[in-house]
Structures are given as structure tokens and as C-alpha cells.
Amino acid sequence: MLSTFRSAALALGLGLASAAAPAAAADSTIEVRDAYIRASGAMAIAAGAFMTIANHGAAEDRLIAASVDGDLAARAELHTHIQDAQGVMRMVEVKDGFAIPAGGEHALARGADHVMLMGLRRPLVEGESVAITLTFEVAGQIVVEVPVGEPAGGAMQGHGGGAMHGHRPGN
Ligand SMILES: [Cu+2]
């Protein structure tokens, strides 16, 4: 009985803690850095978000879900790219998420694993930032403020002003 009460209190406490501390929790084993999401035009219906996720914990963790405010997009999905039988790269949703190795990191990058906002409700404007909630199997929820723009490291691939649409939803 006591343990039931305690776990309920713990769950409540965790809920309050994550609501009160939306920035990437300082005591979390998970660290997110170099996050960015690309600006989108008025016609865009999806946008990919990229970042490096480090796991400072002793156990493997797993990014299992992402979400955003409903005013921003209908939903967020975890995607990766696969090569189909015709040799064409296409995006697929990854239902079981991405493993973040203990003491290691996992990069979400263009052409590879990424978070994708689906059903954008409005354009993403360079200079603003959007809050993306990441749910980890072990670490729980972390809210990341993701700046809209290009990666901090600079443009490694020419920004083709619309010519290079890295992300298109489904087919
Ligand atoms: Cu995608």
C-alpha cells in the first residue's frame, strides 16, 4: 500500500517537475545540442528537425516519441530514410524510435534519422524557435527549443533556395 502511494506521488512529482522545467533538464542524463529546424515556405506541409542527442547515463535510452504544440503542426513523427527496391531514398516512420547508447550519442541528420513535423499549420520563420517535446524511454520528456535556420556549423550543402527539398512527406 505504501509503495503504491509512493509511486503515485513520484509520478505526480515527475509530472510537476517536467511542467515546471521546460528547458532541457539540467539533471537529465540526456543532452541535446546543435538542434535546428529548417525554415519553411507558406506551401510547406512538413519540416525536418535535426540535432545531436547525447546520453550521459549508464544505460541505453531510446527516443520513442516527439510532439509539438497543435498550433504549429498536426503532429511530430520519428523518421528515417531507407533505400527502396528501385534505389530511391524515401522516408519512413520509425515506430520503435532511435537508440541512444549509454555514454554515447546519436545524430539526427539530413538524409538519416530525424524528427519531422507533419501538417504544418504555419510557415517556420528563420530566427524564431519552436518547442519540440522529446519523449525518452528512460529519461522521460525533455522540451527542446529548436531554432529555425541552418545548422550552426554553416552550410555544408548549398542552400538551394527551394531547389533542394530534403523532406517530402510520404509518397
Ligand atoms: Cu521525414
Please tell me about this protein's structure.
It is a single chain. The chain is mainly β and 171 residues long. It has one domain (2-147): PCu(A)C copper chaperone (Immunoglobulin-like, Sandwich). It is built from 1 helix and 10 strands, in the order αββββββββββ. A hairpin with a 5-residue loop joins β4 and β5 (89-93). Residues 48, 79, 91, 114, 116, 167 line the site of copper (II) ion. Copper (II) ion (CU) is lined by residues 48, 79, 91, 114, 116, 167.
Q: What is the third-level CATH name, the topology?
A: Immunoglobulin-like
Instruction: Specify the CATH homologous superfamily.
Output: PCu(A)C copper chaperone
CATH secondary-structure class: Mainly Beta
Integer tally of domains: 1
Contiguous uncertain segments of 5+ residues: 1-23, 155-171
The CATH architecture? Sandwich
Overall shape? globular
**What is the number of beta strands?**
10
Radius of gyration from CA coordinates: 17 Å
Secondary-structure element series: HEEEEEEEEEE
Query: Helix count, per DSSP?
Result: 1
| End-to-end CA span | 52 Å
Helix/strand class: mainly beta
Strand content: 35-45%
Mean pLDDT over the residues: 82
Bound molecules: copper (II) ion
